[in-house]
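REQUEST FORM: STRUCTURE PREDICTION
Request ID: SP-0412
Submitted by: Lab K.M.
Chain count: 1
Length (residues): 120
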Amino acid sequence: MAAEKKYSWHKIAESANDFFWQENNLCEIEVKGKKICIAKKGEEVFACTSKCPHAGGYLSDGFLDAAGNIVCPLHRYKYNLQNGRNVSGEGYYLKTYPVEKRADGIYIGMEEAGFFGLFK
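STATUS: Completed
RESULT:
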């Protein structure tokens, strides 16, 4: 039985308008020393690791396709922003973070430390 993930929540903006969006509706922020790529599709905001797991391309330099997948600028690998699955068939997995819009702002969930504090 897998343990349920526990998150610590960090406020990252008052609203989606506070981010420095590029024309591609992507930007990069830092949360607790980690670089995070933020994506906006319609009214939804998503968060994932800043680099593609394949070759380290900066995802904020990529784009969102018509289906809302983030596309790496280096080799065009595509990832679902809701679950991190690679949808172009290469088998990689993108780390995603839960995002919540609350009355007082936008929050990102970071997994709490695991086994003896080794995993953050």
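NOTES: The two ends are 21 Å apart (CA to CA).
Reviewed by: T.R.
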